[in-house]
Amino acid sequence: MPSAGPAVETNSKGPRLAVCVEDLSKDYALGDERVVALANVSLNIEKGVFLALAGPSGSGKSTLLNMIGCIDTPSRGRVFINGQDVSGRTPDQLAGLRARTIGFVFQTFNLFPVLTAEENVEYPLHHVDEIGRRERRERVRHFLHVVGLTNYARHRPNQLSGGQRQRVAIARALVAHPEIVLADEPTANLDHRTGRNILRLMRRINRETKVTFIFSTHDPQVIRMADRRVDLEDGQIVRLGVRARSDWRYAFDRARDGDDA
Fold this sequence. Notes:
Blueprint: E1 17-30, E2 33-46, E3 50-54, H1 61-68, E4 76-81, E5 84-85, H2 91-101, E6 102-106, H3 117-122, H4 133-146, H5 162-174, E7 180-184, H6 192-209, E8 212-217, H7 220-225, E9 228-233, E10 236-244, E11 247-253, H8 254-260
Parallel strand pairs: 3-8, 3-9, 6-7, 7-8
Antiparallel strand pairs: 1-2, 1-4, 4-5, 9-10, 10-11
Helix pairs in contact: 4-5, 5-6
């Protein structure tokens, strides 16, 4: 199994791995045809990495992200989150796992327009019973401060810029103290400068908190900032890269390895 990190046991699902997928496939019915979105993908992702799932539209990167996020279920294969096999869990069990373990940042922000910034950030905590009202408020204040929006807590999304809305989305993703944050094309609706600032913010949070960040992207800015990259084409992994200063060292490269064969 190819691994997204160096010196990782490929059959290990132990404490060093945030995510492990084994022989993952996803098929969709399109009329009378079957569309293959993922084909026998296997991958290990270490905890604390800043990883980009890269590839053109239709490569399978968003499908893989949705499998990791337990938003969709595989046709075949297994997904492990922090060593736990989530493949056969019920929708309620998956909802509980998402609420406590995984944060999401979406391309279109997905904020509730009638709620203020602080209410949008607080919303995921209403699904975690053990967190009381006082702690919810403290967490909301903290993460709005982390993303630099303390003075915008009472603003609704239509009163915020695109970059500010994405910052609210980041605070919302972090407020439940997840171990993994999944970001689906988070810079696609932002201008270049704003996108770069958002990425720098997420990279700083990654370094300071050791939360694992996994991006689905075709944005070169995201790839340049990542310390791991997984390139997909036609539902399959074609390259696995590890950052080596300003360049990449490829642990697996289908084109290169095929040429060598």
